[in-house]
């Protein structure tokens, strides 16, 4: 390598210390934009692709899924705010006119921006993991069909199945044996007794 090329590399290395903060700010701004975009995408996917109604989850899993989604949302918002702080600095911060004070502030700010970027990335990673866990819970935990099973004694016979509806006119059951797709409708006037069942 020629002496001229060596000198040029030395000059670039010296100039780099003065542009380091600007480069970090640009990285933080790019990360902030990506984080906000991915947060919106994850939110849309969770709403559109997840279970439509978390209330259909069994009781403990419903609470778990809501806590996971709430924690993920808070982490993603916190990560976005940290990235915004790294991109634009602290609002209302005074400018440093002296060379030494400017140098000290710049070095401190470089350290803060780096820490903010790492925190933002960590919050995003953990938030994504929590969203994935919540989706896993909502997709793998199903309703307990035995929770709605009842035994019905009526004037026409005894029946067992999943209780679909109970009105002043009719009692509708979904049988668990035989043709399970066709509801069984009984007149309420013919029903003598309805009791919960654990199995049919």
From TrEMBL:
Membrane-spanning segments: 30-48, 60-84, 116-139
Top-level taxonomic group: Bacteria
UniProtKB keywords: Membrane, Transmembrane, Transmembrane helix
Protein name: Uncharacterized protein
Lineage: Bacteria, Bacillati, Actinomycetota, Actinomycetes, Kitasatosporales
């Amino acid at each position: 390598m020629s002496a001229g090329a060596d000198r040029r590399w030395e000059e670039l290395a010296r100039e780099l210390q003065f542009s380091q903060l600007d480069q970090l700010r640009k990285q933080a701004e790019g990360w902030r934009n990506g984080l906000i975009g991915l947060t919106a995408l994850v939110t849309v996917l969770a709403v559109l692709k997840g279970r439509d109604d978390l209330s259909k989850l069994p009781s403990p899993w419903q609470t778990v899924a809501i806590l996971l989604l709430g924690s993920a949302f808070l982490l993603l918002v916190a990560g976005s705010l940290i990235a915004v702080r790294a991109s634009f600095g602290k609002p209302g911060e005074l400018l440093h006119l002296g060379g030494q004070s400017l140098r000290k502030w710049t070095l401190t700010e470089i350290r803060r921006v780096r820490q903010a970027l790492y925190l933002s990335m960590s919050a995003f990673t953990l938030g994504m993991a929590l969203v994935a866990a919540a989706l896993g819970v909502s997709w793998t935990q199903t309703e307990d069909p035995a929770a709605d099973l009842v035994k019905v004694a009526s004037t026409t016979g005894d029946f067992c199945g999943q209780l679909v509806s109970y009105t002043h006119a009719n009692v509708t059951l979904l049988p668990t044996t035989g043709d399970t797709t066709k509801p069984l409708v009984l007149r309420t006037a013919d029903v003598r007794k309805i009791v919960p069942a654990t199995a049919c």
